[in-house]
Amino acid sequence: MQRLGPDGMSSDESDVEDGRGGEDPANPTRPIFRVVAPDWRVREVGEWLEPFDAIHLFSCHNSDDLRSQYPRLQLHTPRTVDRTTRAVKDLPVNAYDPAWLEQQTQADFTVRATNQRYEFQHDNRLFR
After folding, report:
1. Residue 68, pLDDT score
2. Cα(53)–Cα(90) distance, integer angstroms
């Protein structure tokens, strides 16, 4: 996660700009944000990051600390990509979308994917 850094994370967008008239049926004033993933990042990385978001949401929901904005409800499907983000360099080769990587003319210089592979999976004991 550290190697991905902020530039390797998804962003989100809402159809509701002013925070009114949201899409959450349980709370119509609270919008749901659609996740927008970097186009260079393989889908498995986003799926691997989702439990971290869920744990953060759970910890904020069960905290008495109300200093920050309440976490956003995010919708992860259908997949939306952002084609304007720059790829994070020096990640394992399987962190990059293979079709995107194939289109890069100077990937050895601009992306510098490492030959190592990372297993983007979690130990199920994490969720017990």
Report:
1. 54
2. 24
